[in-house]
Amino acid sequence: VIPLGTAHLEFNSNSHHYTWRKVTTTVHNIIVGKLWVDQSGDMDIINHTDGTKCHLKYIPYSYFSRDSQRKVKGVVMNANKEVKWVVQGTWDAKIEIAPVISTSGSPDNPVYKTGPYTLAWKRRMPP
């Protein structure tokens, strides 16, 4: 499933307006086997009120990878495109964020030194 269009969210309490385009959803084993879905692609969540932007990369499942499935990683940048937070987790269980303390490496391949990670979101199973 390749979604079209842009999603919008506006908070009445502070008038912050966010937009993003959804990533690709792939349904596996439609013919035979247990059905399961995966998300893949890049997503930019933009705050049009203050110019901040979150760039997320949804890592597709790979049979040959040792990484966990459903992995998400990314960064949050201020209006000046300076990375302020690092984001990591899985799209179906939890997301953690950590403040960026310093940056090294090249502009094409930056390395971020971060503070401790904080839980930003966690799935809560229905009772």
Automatic annotation (TrEMBL):
Protein's organism: Bracon brevicornis
Keywords from the UniProt entry: Phosphoprotein
GO cellular component: cytosol; perinuclear endoplasmic reticulum; plasma membrane
Family of the protein in this entry: Belongs to the OSBP family.
GO molecular function: sterol binding
Gene3D superfamilies: 2.40.160.120
Annotated protein name in UniProt: Oxysterol-binding protein
InterPro entries found in the cross-reference section: OSBP_sf, Oxysterol-bd
Keyword field contains Nucleotide-binding: no
